[in-house]
Design goal:
By secondary structure, the protein is of the alpha+beta class. The protein contains two helices and ten strands; from the N terminus they run H-E-E-E-E-E-E-E-E-E-E-H. The longest helix is centred in the first third of the chain and has 16 residues.
């Protein structure tokens, strides 16, 4: 119940920030209520797309491991519910990692940077955009995350 309320609050904040925009809402994989996602890194939902089955979503894990920058394509799995997806972790443990999400729905686009700490997703530090995140924004998020570790 509390998780649902938190997810609803995050959704309300995203919609208030970009009314009518195509956006992502992120949450723990269990929030998707889809059994196949139980071991995913996190779940996401799209908002603001006229046809929730149409968004094109890609993700890349961006990391700093021993001072070396790494990029790994990440699988985004659709749910049986339109507009709901899971991001599967395939990046290694250790180092600083963020997942950069990119999505389009018609002529609308969205992006997000989702950081990961030792305990998993750091939702309160996620950043959302009405466009794909820039390389500079991803680099800044990685540096900030690496300085905390």
């Amino acid at each position: 119940m509390i998780r649902s309320l938190v997810l609803l609050a995050v959704f309300a904040a995203a919609v208030a920030a970009h009314p009518g925009a195509f956006t992502f809402v992120i949450g723990n994989a269990v929030a998707s209520q889809d059994f196949q996602f139980k071991s995913a890194a996190f779940a996401l939902r799209t908002e603001g797309c006229a046809d929730p089955a149409k968004p094109q979503i890609t993700a890349t894990a961006e990391g700093l491991v021993n001072g070396t920058r790494r990029s790994i394509p990440v699988k985004v799995m659709p749910s049986h519910r339109p507009g709901v997806y899971a991001v599967v972790q395939n990046w290694p443990d250790g180092g600083a990692w963020v997942v950069s999400l990119r999505g389009t729905c018609g002529d609308k686009s969205a992006g997000a940077i989702v950081p990961f700490g030792p305990q998993g997703m750091v939702r309160e530090s996620a950043q959302f955009y009405a466009r794909p995140a820039t390389n500079a924004e991803v680099d800044a998020a990685l540096k900030a995350l690496a300085s905390v570790k």
